[in-house]
From TrEMBL:
GO biological process terms held by the UniProt record: hydrogen peroxide catabolic process; response to hydrogen peroxide
Provenance organism: Mucilaginibacter polytrichastri
Keywords: Heme, Hydrogen peroxide, Iron, Metal-binding, Oxidoreductase, Peroxidase
Protein name (record): catalase
Domain Catalase core: 6-390
Cofactor(s) it depends on: heme
Taxonomic lineage from the root: Bacteria, Pseudomonadati, Bacteroidota, Sphingobacteriia, Sphingobacteriales
């Protein structure tokens, strides 16, 4: 059946291509509403670009539970083996702009929205289990160093390495970034991590600390630096194309969902701060526990409606899952919903991709992006005498015992918090193969050769000190690659 062309208000019209004018060659008429509607909408087609994670890809899928973890959590998403929950995942580049290449050396975002019957649970992580900073106050500074120089408007290795060298806590993530893991072969061949420490709460109201892991069933596959550069000249949208076409072919990517758990007692006596985002938990001490399988099996019908308008916030946890004292997580609880309200409007959770498919009852009304009935005729205040909406005490979390009642601004590099080198050294010596160690060194040398200006050697030497503290061999190889006199770092002090 043929469809009539209409305005957004549903009004049919005839002239979509030709403007009304005074005569064949005269000026246009102000009354040509279609001309104005088309141009006005066109100039507003772009919503504000995400400050970080601007370029991304996404798909719908499901989480199927394969193992019982009820000893740790009462969350309904996990409450039965075989249970399936719909989800949406958005993959992304962290520092790149919306038009950047998808083979750039950059961490990848791994943001997940689970549509559970207790509300939407957002697990917003990366393809790395750690991050560059461990206090959210530093996040704007870090991102500014990775973006464009305010004078040249160019990406600046000098800015990036200056920040890294002045913040030794970044070293662990820098090692991941400079390895071939920094240039994954699309999104299907990389792991995902919740990265932060979260908490699980069981039916007995007992709390356990947790880290979430998603292991790709497709196998890890990365570009070398040279391969990534070549692909950048061929296809800027490699990862988007790879994910989209794989799902269209019926090759649905899958990840095994696993968790690590740590008791509150173990956390109190652990060797380091278990809420430090720059560190991982030992898999020997806290082995991975199988939970389920994530599968992506449906491409969105419209990229902008779903992928671009998808909005994630670590603040969105559901009953049985909670926060932790992780300082970066605590900052993200505030900043992520705030970013979505700026980018999409205060009612961003009404947009279909973000909307909870189950019951939603609250007293929020009005504002931008009201796409539902705005609460209809129901009261917009609480308490009231007309509806029967009541808080449910069954959803109360157990009290969290704090180890201090002193309010202060604590040094993130204080004694006990300042070992920035042990885990990067282990990563270099034990996690990477000989070939991958050579690749990491070559990538570091290439990146640091871009440092310029009068502070060049100061920045290089400061960063080399970090590499030497992590592993003597690593420091020596990088120094030689940069043609720096290694005797400066081997002489007794």
């Amino acid at each position: 059946m043929e469809k009539k062309l209409t305005t957004a208000a549903g009004i049919p019209y005839a002239h979509h291509e030709d403007s009304q004018s005074v005569g064949q060659r005269g000026p246009l008429l102000l009354q040509d509403f279609i001309l104005h509607e088309k141009l006005a909408h066109f100039t507003r087609e772009r919503i504000p670009e995400r400050v970080v994670h601007a370029k991304g890809s996404g798909a719908y899928g499901s989480l199927t539970i394969t193992n019982d973890i009820s000893a740790y959590t009462r969350a309904k998403v996990f409450n039965a083996i075989g249970k399936t929950t719909k989800l949406f995942i958005r993959f992304s580049l962290v520092a790149g702009e919306k038009g950047s290449s998808e083979t750039e050396r950059d961490p990848r975002g791994f943001a997940m929205k689970f549509y559970t019957e207790d509300g939407n649970w957002d697990l917003v992580g990366n393809n790395t289990p750690i991050f560059f900073i461990k206090d959210g106050k530093k996040f704007p500074d870090f991102i500014h160093s990775e973006k464009r120089d305010p004078y040249t408007n160019l990406k600046s290795p000098t800015m990036a390495w200056d920040f890294f060298s002045l913040n030794p806590e970044s070293l662990h993530q820098v090692m991941f970034l400079m390895s071939d893991r920094g240039t994954p072969y699309g999104y299907r061949h990389m792991h995902g991590f919740g990265s932060h420490t979260f908490s699980l709460i069981n039916a007995k109201n007992e709390r356990t600390w947790v880290k979430f892991h998603f292991k790709t069933q497709q196998g890890i596959k990365n570009f070398t630096d040279a391969e990534a550069a070549l692909e950048k000249s061929v296809d800027l949208d490699f990862a988007q194309r790879d994910l989209l076409t794989a799902i269209d072919r019926g090759e649905f990517p899958k990840w095994d969902m696993k968790i690590q758990v740590m008791t509150e007692a173990q956390a109190e006596t652990y060797a380091f701060n278990p809420f430090d985002l720059t560190k991982t938990w030992s898999h020997k001490e806290f082995p991975l526990i199988d939970v389920g399988v994530v599968e992506l099996n449906e491409n969105p019908k419209n990229y902008h409606a779903a992928v671009e308008q998808s909005a994630f916030a670590p603040a969105h946890v559901v009953d049985g899952i909670g926060y932790s004292p992780d300082r970066v997580l605590q900052a993200r609880i505030l900043s992520y919903p705030d970013a979505q309200r700026y980018r999409l409007g205060v009612n961003y959770e009404d947009i279909p991709v973000n909307r909870c498919p189950y019951m939603v009852n609250n007293y929020q009304r009005d504002g931008l992006m009201v796409t539902g009935d705005n609460g209809g005729s129901e009261p917009n205040y609480f308490p009231n005498s007309f509806d029967n909406i009541q808080p449910d005490p069954a959803y109360t979390e157990p009290a969290l015992q704090l180890n201090s009642n002193v309010v202060d601004t604590f040094d993130r590099n204080a004694p006990g918090e300042n070992d920035h080198y042990t885990q990067p050294g282990i990563f270099f010596r034990e996690t990477l193969s000989d070939e991958l160690r050579l690749s990491l060194v070559a990538n570091v040398v290439k990146a640091m050769k871009g440092i310029e200006g009068p502070k060049k050697m100061e920045i290089i030497n400061r960063q080399l000190c970090h590499f030497f503290r992590a592993d003597i061999g690593l420091g020596m190889q990088v120094a030689r690659g940069l043609e720096v006199d290694v005797s400066l770092f081997t002489q007794p002090h």
